[in-house]
Design brief:
two-stranded antiparallel sheet, alpha/beta
């Protein structure tokens, strides 16, 4: 809802609305639900309401785009940290169309769309096989089951950058043939975000899981961004309440890379 964000792999966070519903184990201790309830918003119910945000909020990406164009430097924007753009909920159909119009009007922004519902993407976006080059699409893959369910669907979508967020990482994940996959538009995956779960009920993340998934990407030249180790490892290693103090991490996990296209100016 504001320009401020503590998410290290983006610069700004834009929320067109608040609210979603849980669909897999990664959702169990959802930080967004927790944050919304602090404001008295009960918007994490399958058939419940969604909170629509102000016109001032919708104007922010236009300003970010103007500023980025003036500086000739693209800016990453995560959309949406408090929702899933591809949730099939009746109250968000109209604002979702408005979001596509906003995205098309802001080519200096690198729109990072992350979903747990890739099966809905083809029928909800207006771009068919010609996605704007400044739109990235990612799926959450908290364990092997959901990696296998979501990543193949992602690879059928011709986004300029296709990424996986293995956060919270709840088990080992073998990315197998997803990294350099032939026959998919644009090849395989282009970026990995990985991290452990944080919060008062955080489930443990094993260093071996993080080492395995990051090594798989490094061995194939895929950029990796390790966001945090999670609360359990954070306590064990003295890396802070979220495991985010990178100076306390094992040296081999201090990896924070971005796709090469992230700094390219619009064509």
């Amino acid at each position: 809802m504001s320009t401020a964000t503590k998410i290290e792999w983006t610069a700004n966070s834009f929320n067109p609305w608040w609210g979603c519903s849980r669909v897999s184990p990664g959702c169990r201790f959802c930080y967004a639900d927790r944050d919304a309830q602090r404001y008295g918003q009960k918007v994490w119910r399958r058939h419940g309401p969604r909170r629509m945000l102000s016109e001032a909020n919708w104007a922010r990406p236009l300003k970010w785009n103007r500023d980025a164009a003036r500086a000739r430097t693209p800016v990453r924007v995560f959309c949406a940290s408090m929702a899933d753009v591809f949730e099939d909920h009746p109250s968000v159909a109209e604002p979702r169309q408005r979001l596509w119009d906003l995205i098309e009007a802001t080519p200096w922004l690198r729109w990072q769309l992350l979903t747990k519902r890739p099966e809905n993407v083809p029928r909800m976006v207006p771009w068919g096989d010609s996605w704007p080059s400044w739109v990235w699409l990612g799926v959450s893959a908290e364990n092997q089951r959901w990696a296998g369910a979501r990543i193949p669907l992602l690879l059928n979508i011709p986004a300029a950058v296709r990424f996986v967020s293995a956060e919270p990482l709840l088990g080992p994940v073998d990315l197998g043939g997803y990294l350099r996959r032939t026959g998919s538009p644009g090849g395989g995956l282009h970026w990995l975000i990985a991290g452990g779960e944080s919060g008062p009920k955080a489930r443990p993340c094993d260093l071996a899981w993080l080492r395995s998934i990051t090594a798989q990407c490094q061995d194939t030249g895929i950029p990796v961004f390790v966001k945090q180790l999670g609360s359990v490892l954070g306590r064990q290693l003295g890396a802070g309440p979220k495991g985010g103090d990178i100076t306390a991490w094992p040296a081999d996990l201090r990896i924070r890379e971005f796709p090469r296209t992230s700094e390219e100016a619009p064509a």
